[in-house]
Amino acid sequence: MSEQSTTERARPEAIKAVPVRHPLRWVSIAVIAVLFAMFVHLLLTNDNFRWSYIFVSYEEGKRGVMFTGPVLEGLRGTLLLTVTSMAIGIGLGTVLAVMRLSPNRILSSVAFVYTWFFRAVPRLILAILFGNLNILWSRIGFGLPFDEQIGKLFGIDDFNGQFYSIRAVDLLAGFVAGMLALGLSEAAYMAEIVRAGLQSVDTGQSEAAVALGMSRFQVLRRIVLPQAMRVIVPPTGNETIAMVKDTSLVAFVPVAGELWFQLNNISARTFVVFPVLVAAVIWYLIICTVLMIGQYFIERHYGRGYGASARAKQRLRNIEVEQGGKITTGEAS
Amino acid sequence: MTDSTAEMVRADNVHKSFGSLEVLKGIDLVVKPGEVCCVLGPSGSGKSTFLRCINHLEKINAGRILVDGDLVGYRERGGKLHELGEKDVAKQRRSIGMVFQRFNLFPHMTVLDNVMEAPCRVKRESKAEVRERATALLERVGLSSKIGNYPGQLSGGQQQRVAIARALAMRPKLMLFDEPTSALDPELVGEVLDTMKDLAAEGMTMIVVTHEIGFAREVGDSLIFMDGGVVVEQGAPREVIANPQHERTRAFLSKVL
Ligand SMILES: Nc1ncnc2c1ncn2[C@@H]1O[C@H](COP(=O)(O)OP(=O)(O)OP(=O)(O)O)[C@@H](O)[C@H]1O
Ligand SMILES: [Mg+2]
């Protein structure tokens, strides 16, 4: 044995074995291929899809149902509603999460109660509720709180401490009501997601940052949140995609400028059901595809320093550094 | 105040409890500028807690800690102590560097950004200047080739040296080390200790919690041995190590040596 190990040995011939057969794999591929072919065949040959109704023209002198004016308006509304309510959700949710984790008992209980309420009430009910909130107030304004009561206390009947006010029906109806219902509800879910993210970051991180003299806000903004993002982004992608679809609930506020409402409207008017459904499916697929691509890039950004994509970026940076000519000394360890 | 300026750190009768558990039971310590003070003691004796009290990561319950003549975490006015606000505490911490057992580098930033973060954000120094200083510091700890790497791509020893550079970038007048080599593989301990040795030779005031008896003997100017929340023994490292006076010190050293 020892004799053999000291002498140089020739490299043996590469192994040429007969591979294991996987007949079931082939069968399943064949089945999938047939099913796929059937599906394509269905799409192309079944007249009930009425592709021209969807893409070309649904009525004399009108574009296809996907691209007709009101539907595009509705699409714009859906996108706008998704963006604004998610912005409210993410912003307020982050504030709530920070409050929830605060050592201040009052702040954390407020955040808890908020989350409790808005997670308990169904979005559909919230949408209707917000659409009707204006029965509580005739006007909504900014100014001194309890101004009427204070006025009465001093014997002034029509004391007014409002700087600015607006009729409630104008503010709290339609789009704004829908946006608030969805956004405030979303904030409750986002609060939990952000909290999980913040808690996933090692306490040693904020300790090291604080020891360097960073303020609590700087620690949150520069150290903890960026690391929490890795945990926050994937479920937020879920939430955003769910939100695209939940925007259709604002029809109950009621808000008309929304994708599904508009499509449904045309369907009701022209008595065409199936192609309209297909058009809706296609639009939602397109929106979600775009969102998923966005999520991929955001995840990649916050994955810096972790895993494979980090190494790829690292190579790029090294090249930059070399070209910058800043580094003169070689490998040190 | 005049006599305390010759002392970088002064702890008077420091007490600290976590709930009902009293961890520090009256610690006294003086560290002069340029001195290296090594802290030894068994696990749970309160070494880390004491170190964390020095930069106010923990609030003490009784006693005083002064760093460079300033009361840590409080202001004395009319014989009364007033708690310092967040900003003032942060200001005090800027001049105290801390190095942790588990490095605690920021994993989402490159090595260079780790070092530059605090001077740029906290002190608002000019970026170009900080970059120059950070590069020089990283070169000093032997890591100039790793500038663009993320911490996850470095060995433990390299990470700890980056952590030292990161603390030094704030130009501290005092450095606290909490078992800086305990999480390292044996062959990586040397490179970190060498960096610390250089730092000591340049005159940095350091408090080092460590189990590296060799380092304490060679580099330390003073040594304290803690057990059960009190300083059991202190003196010149060589003497304490060669000739411990207390039974507990003897028992501990016989296990570590
Ligand atoms: N945040 C805390 N809350 C409650 N108890 C704590 C806390 N931090 C430390 N302790 C307790 O204080 C005691 C001293 O802890 P400390 O970390 O200071 O010990 P140490 O001497 O550094 O030990 P080691 O050598 O293991 O690091 C331990 O009993 C520990 O359980
Ligand atoms: Mg410790």
TrEMBL record, chain A:
Give the protein's recorded name.
Answer: Amino acid ABC transporter permease
Write the record's keywords in alphabetical order, separated by commas. Answer: Amino-acid transport, Cell membrane, Membrane, Transmembrane, Transmembrane helix, Transport
Bilayer topology? Multi-pass membrane protein
Q: Give the organism's phylogenetic lineage.
A: Bacteria, Bacillati, Actinomycetota, Actinomycetes, Micromonosporales
Q: Which family does it belong to?
A: Belongs to the binding-protein-dependent transport system permease family.
**Where found, per UniProt?**
Cell membrane
InterPro entries reported for this sequence? AA_ABC_transptr_permease_3TM, ArtM/GltK/GlnP/TcyL/YhdX-like, MetI-like, MetI-like_sf
Which residues does the UniProt record annotate as the domain ABC transmembrane type-1?
Answer: 75-295
Membrane-spanning regions, if any?
26-44, 79-99, 111-137, 171-191, 271-298
Under NCBIfam families, the record lists: HEQRo_perm_3TM (TIGR01726)
Instruction: Identify the domain of life.
Output: Bacteria
Q: Does the entry feature the keyword Transmembrane helix, yes or no?
A: yes
- Please give the Pfam families that the UniProt record associates with this protein: BPD_transp_1
